[in-house]
Design goal:
- By secondary structure, the chain is of the alpha/beta class.
- 32% of the residues lie in helices and 23% in strands.
- The chain contains twelve helices and 18 strands.
- Strand 13 and strand 14 form a beta hairpin.
- Helix 3 crosses helix 4 and helix 5 packs across helix 6.
- The protein starts with 5 loop residues before the first strand and ends with a strand.
- It binds pyridoxal-5'-phosphate (PLP).
- The site of pyridoxal-5'-phosphate (PLP) has 13 residues, from helix 9 and strand 9.
């Protein structure tokens, strides 16, 4: 492998996360793996077959291009569901391929029906209803106008699901808004039933909702961040831990295990006398005779430039601070106190090495969504490999 860095995906970690999350939701609720954003940076093409080996048979993506990549990566007869963008020709492709997709306005509903008649196959749609997020979704007035269409066109429209999405279930500050959304969703489902539309899958929960509000789990949970081994927020983790406060939880700190490990290696070792600047400009001045390892990872690889003089990596099982500016393709790390470091040694950017760990959250605690952001910024051309 010629690449300066590599992403390892741990099969054991993914298995454990899925087992844990499935135990939370119980056997009456289906598990759906959300793989938008290149499977949160894990790599769709590598992650999908891995998840299938761990028993997953449902995947959700954001857009048509992701659906195509997911479908091409399948090794089992799994379902793929598009939760967002799907342009004209992609709708026909989706219908033809048996890919499910959200319908949230009249235009897409008509397009789905027309496509289904053209290709002679039923469109598998999930009705997205407005409950208070105010992003996409039918409001009640629109639903009233389309509900007859759903019934009349039942020969070409298979309403597989009814869905909504919460406005931030990972933060207790949104508690009331989420309760209102949940009530609105239930009320809409009851009304739809009365109108003769009975979608078999009611689904509303993402990771945070499923872990915090059991009543949101319904028939299926769309798990994203949690099945990759990250808590949606510290609040979610604390809430879960308090609610499930028994001895086993107190003993084993975290039931989720990070699936991803981003690693590189030491490219060169450099000894620098005291009083010299290291790297571009004056960002780093040596205060004694120091030793640095050049690591061939930079902001091109998703390691934020804002981690200059701030971030850490692991070498020889110990934390080494970033020294000076993060460059496009490399950075220097201070290994003065880790004397054994040699060219070729493994460097871990995200994940464990021996007993040390760099968590994605540790990159910064300033942004709530940083977990998500750091992950999806990892370029898709870094090689992904599965390890046991
Ligand atoms: C991303 C997404 C999810 C998964 O969210 P997580 O917080 O990662 O679990 C679920 N549903 C929708 C509609 C999404 O866009």
């Amino acid at each position: 492998m010629f690449s300066p860095c590599q992403i390892e995906l741990s099969e054991a970690a993914l298995r454990q996360n899925i087992r844990f999350l499935e135990a939370q939701i119980g056997s009456g609720t289906r598990f759906c793996s959300v793989i938008k954003g290149n499977a949160y940076g894990h790599g769709i093409e590598t992650f999908v077959p891995l998840a299938e080996r761990c028993g997953v048979r449902r995947f959700a993506v954001f857009s048509g291009d992701e659906a195509l990549r997911a479908q091409r990566s399948l090794t089992q007869t799994s379902d793929v569901l598009v939760m967002g963008d799907l342009d004209g020709p992609a709708i026909e492709w989706a219908v033809e391929s048996g890919i499910g997709f959200y319908v949230f306005d009249r235009g897409r509903l008509d397009a789905a029906e027309a496509a289904a008649r053209r290709v002679g196959r039923r469109a598998r749609v999930h009705l997205e209803v407005e409950t208070g997020l105010h992003r996409t979704g039918f409001d009640r007035a629109e639903l009233r106008r389309v509900v007859r269409r759903l019934v009349e066109a039942a020969d070409v429209l298979s309403v597989d699901g009814v869905t909504t999405h919460y406005a931030g279930a990972e933060s207790v500050g949104n508690y009331l808004r989420i309760q209102h959304q949940l009530a609105a969703f239930r009320e809409t489902v009851t009304w739809l039933r009365a109108e003769g539309v009975t979608p078999p899958l009611r689904h509303t929960a993402c990771s945070a909702a499923a872990l915090t509000y059991p009543e949101t789990r319904m028939d299926l949970v769309r798990f994203g961040i949690a099945h990759y081994g990250f808590w949606p927020s510290q609040e979610t983790r604390m809430h879960w831990a308090l609610r499930n406060d028994d001895e086993s939880n107190r003993r084993s700190a975290d039931p989720l295990r990070r699936v991803m490990r981003l690693k590189s290696r030491v490219m060169a070792v450099k000894h620098v006398p005291r009083g010299e600047f290291v790297g571009y400009g004056t960002a780093y001045l040596t205060t004694r005779r120091q030793t640095f390892a050049a690591v061939p990872v930079g902001y091109f690889h998703g390691f934020a430039r804002s981690l200059s003089n701030l971030g850490h990596v692991l070498v020889c099982g110990r934390r080494a601070p970033v020294a000076g500016l993060v460059n496009m393709n490399m950075m220097m790390v201070d290994v003065t106190d880790i004397p054994a470091v040699q060219s070729g040694d493994e460097v871990v950017i995200i994940g464990r090495q021996k007993r040390a760990e760099i968590t994605v959250a540790s990159f910064s605690d300033m942004t709530r969504f940083l977990n998500y952001e750091v992950l999806v910024r990892l370029p898709s051309d870094i090689p992904r490999v599965v390890v046991a």
